[in-house]
Amino acid sequence: MSDMDPESYYDELAEGEWERLDRDPVTRMEFANTTAYLARDLPESDRERSDADGRASSHVLDVGGAAGRYTVWLAERGHDVSLVDLSATQVALARENATERGLADHVTAEQGDMRALPFADDTFDAVCCLGGPLSHVVDADERACAMAELRRVARTDAPVFVSVIGRLAALQDIIKFNLDGSHGLLGPIAETGDYTADLVAERGDGEGWAECHFFRAAEFEAELEQAGFAVEQLVGLEGVAARMKHELSGADGEAIEDVRDVVRTLREDPVAVDFSEHILAVCRN
């Protein structure tokens, strides 16, 4: 497999994906803004309350959940969570992280592909696909298949939360950090959003991240609607703070809080959404 194969990349990354969401002020904004919408729209999590069929009232699927940062957050708040990830290393870490926090009875984790989820139709009360795993499905037809799978396993009217990596922020990343080695990538990524091993070999410096499709906000919304979702809200998780990790890591607490306030204020503004590093869609099945 290519060094840019997503499964290989996340196997090698190991604990890095768990650590990413608490690494700096900007990644903490991604996590905090995501969980704000989860807390608002998730179903009740009281395990003692059952419906007429006797099933638990809050079974949540975490697709591409990696080492389980969101799974742990969900389980700590009373939800039963099933995590699926392409990387065997990430699945093992998710199990460890749940066990260390006394959550093993409420978390299952297994290796699987979001294009063919190992669950029956209408299984989950909510579905999450957070942090950008859908962006690693570069082929448009396969991405449509993955979106159809997210919808298939969600119950009628269940909330579905999907976040992807933004195209404009990806272009800013190249310009800011690797212009000399990767300026040849700018035009193709701006046009198609596709970042592939072939493109990096042809137009870049030969060193690449995991293959990815970077989204414009309108494109993301259109693909979700084509899959049959009702998109209730698009959210810019980092907004105006996107690509500012280094600068904010050296800022004092009061300044960081002011930035957080501005990001929260503008997180549903369409321009801030499109410029965000991660774009969250809050959908209804």
Structure description:
The chain is an alpha/beta fold. The chain has one domain: Rossmann fold (3-Layer(aba) Sandwich). Helices cover 45% and strands 16% of the residues. It has 14 helices and 9 strands. It has helices spanning 6-13, 16-20, 25-41, 69-76, 88-100, 140-152, 167-177, 179-182, 186-192, 197-203, 217-226, 245-249, 253-266, 270-275, and strands at 59-63, 80-85, 107-111, 126-129, 159-165, 194-195, 212-213, 230-236, 278-284. The chain has a 7-stranded mixed β-sheet with strand order 3-2-1-4-5-9-8, with helices on both faces. A two-stranded antiparallel sheet has the order 6-7. It starts with 5 loop residues before the first helix and ends with a strand.
Quick recap:
Residues 60-155 form the Methyltransferase domain. With 285 residues, this protein is of the alpha/beta class.
Count of distinct structural domains: 1
Radius of gyration: 18 Å
What do the pLDDT scores average to?
Answer: 93
Principal-axes shape call: globular
- Strand percentage lies at 15-25%
* Main sheet strand line-up: 3-2-1-4-5-9-8
Q: Just name the CATH architecture.
A: 3-Layer(aba) Sandwich
| Structural class assignment | alpha/beta
By CATH, the superfamily comes out as Vaccinia Virus protein VP39
**Tally of DSSP helical segments:** 14
Domain Methyltransferase: 60-155
InterPro entries: Methyltransf_25, SAM-dependent_MTases_sf
Pfam family, one: Methyltransf_25
Organism: Halococcus salifodinae DSM 8989
List keywords for this structure.
285 residues, 45% helix, two-stranded antiparallel sheet, Rossmann fold, alpha/beta, seven-stranded mixed sheet, single chain
